UniProtKB/TrEMBL annotation:
Database matches in InterPro entries: CoA-transferase_III_domain, CoA-Trfase_fam_III, CoA-Trfase_III_dom3_sf, CoA-Trfase_III_dom_1_sf
Alphabetic keyword roster: Transferase
Annotated signal sequence range: none
Gene Ontology terms for molecular function: CoA-transferase activity
Protein name: L-carnitine dehydratase/bile acid-inducible protein F
Length: 406
């Protein structure tokens, strides 16, 4: 439970406290969604096969045998190892599902149905159930049911076609952006369905896909194409519709500068020591600057060459020009800016001891998300979870011997 308190001084429950979530999946998309629900107070039970979520083996590096990949998307959960291919295992999970509020899965469409755990069969006994399916390509069309991974979705969405430069060719975004976006859209959909259930008492299906999630955030790239502008080009670190706007080398590294209005352009020209640029017909308007970007970028780069990242960031910020250093992951995590966010939290893991994790990236003033549980060990809570549906120690031992649970 959160440490937040209400005005009367009592403990305030988190928004989803008392909500029961079952997760069926692996890797990122459904685990990240359910972790976010867990951050908001939901009781998340991660149903794992005997060999566990495949992400447990992703690495190196490892922390006391635990994968940082797995650790990063599985806090605030309990792990129950149940063999869904065993009749008794599937029956146990069905009982759990009948009592659940939310199911989230990134199994391929049709897998849950073949296991006897599909939306329709469960809704017949649990009309309030919210059933969330994260897939590669959605529930319809020629690719429905096909497996997909993040980079495949990046490529098929068009994202890779606008990432990189003309010289580099298509380049993937350096994080599993399709997986993460699908998880975020799934979380939004589940919360919307939950709000609707508060009014009607009825659940509904939530679908999102890796492909659809990336398309959902391409904004002006897709907007330009739909408006008749054709396929956008790869612009590298330059902004396609504003200039100067991008990454620039300086004496000891690189900085980003973002000029998105005429007042900012005038301030940049002034602080760089070239106020005459404002009246240069090549650079008079943003459209002029975009057309003449190579010449403009060369001049800006030359003006920046004589000073350091820290000095330029200080000077540009003082002048009111949006800018920032380009940091490595380590530089970002060790910076004062990130430290003040409070997003890096120390968590006591049951095997690895005290470990740092990236915590919730949102803040709620009254009911803040908290890390209540470390990422679970494989099957750590199987007996505990099954005891909640009446499986005693003797029955649990029998089911384990039969291969139904682990």
């Amino acid at each position: 439970m959160s440490d937040a308190t209400n005005p009367a001084g009592g403990a305030r429950p988190q928004p989803l406290e008392g909500v029961r979530v079952l997760e069926f999946g692996q890797a990122v998309s459904s685990p990240l969604c359910t972790m976010l629900l867990g951050d908001l107070g939901a009781d998340v039970v991660k149903i794992e096969p005997p060999h566990g979520d495949a992400a447990r083996g992703y690495g190196p590096p490892f922390v006391a045998g635990e994968s940082p990949y797995f650790l990063s998307v599985n806090r605030n959960k309990r792990s129950a190892v149940i063999n869904l291919k065993h009749p008794e295992g599937a029956a146990l999970v069905r009982t759990l599902a009948e009592r659940a509020d939310i199911i989230v899965t990134n199994f391929r469409p049709g897998v849950m149905e073949r296991l006897g755990l599909g939306e329709e069969s469960l809704r017949a006994v649990n009309p309030g159930l919210i059933f969330c399916q994260v897939s590669g390509y959605g529930p319809r069309g020629p690719y429905a049911g096909q497996p997909s991974y993040d980079q495949i979705a990046q490529g098929m969405s068009g994202l890779m076609s606008v990432t990189g430069t003309e010289e580099s060719g298509p380049v993937r975004v350096g994080v599993a952006i399709a997986d993460c976006l699908a998880a975020l859209f799934a979380t939004i959909g589940v919360l919307g369905a939950f709000a609707e259930r508060q009014r009607t008492g009825l659940g509904q299906r939530v679908d999102t896909s890796l492909l659809g999630a990336v398309l959902g955030i391409l904004t002006y790239q897709t907007g330009g194409y739909l408006a008749g502008g054709g396929d956008p080009k790869r612009e590298g670190n330059d902004h396609p519709v504003a200039a100067p706007y991008g990454a620039f080398p300086v004496q000891d590294g690189h900085i980003n500068i973002a000029v998105a209005s005429e007042p900012v352009w005038r301030r940049l020209a002034e602080v760089l020591g070239h106020p005459e640029w404002v009246d240069d017909p090549r650079f008079r308007t943003n459209a002029d600057r975009v057309r003449n970007r190579p010449a403009l970028n060369a001049l800006v780069t030359e003006a920046l060459a004589g000073d350091t990242v820290d000095n330029w960031v200080a000077r540009l910020n003082e002048a009111g020009v949006p800018c920032g250093p380009i940091w490595s992951i380590g530089q970002a995590l060790e910076s004062d800016v990130v430290r003040h966010l409070g997003i890096i939290q120390q968590v006591r893991h049951d095997r690895a001891g005290e470990i740092p994790l990236i915590g919730p990236a949102i803040e709620l003033t009254a009911t803040p998300p908290v890390i209540r549980r470390p990422p679970p060990l494989l099957g750590q809570h199987t007996a505990e979870v099954l005891a909640e549906i009446g499986v005693d120690e003797a029955e649990f031992a029998r089911l384990r011997e039969a291969g139904a649970v682990g």
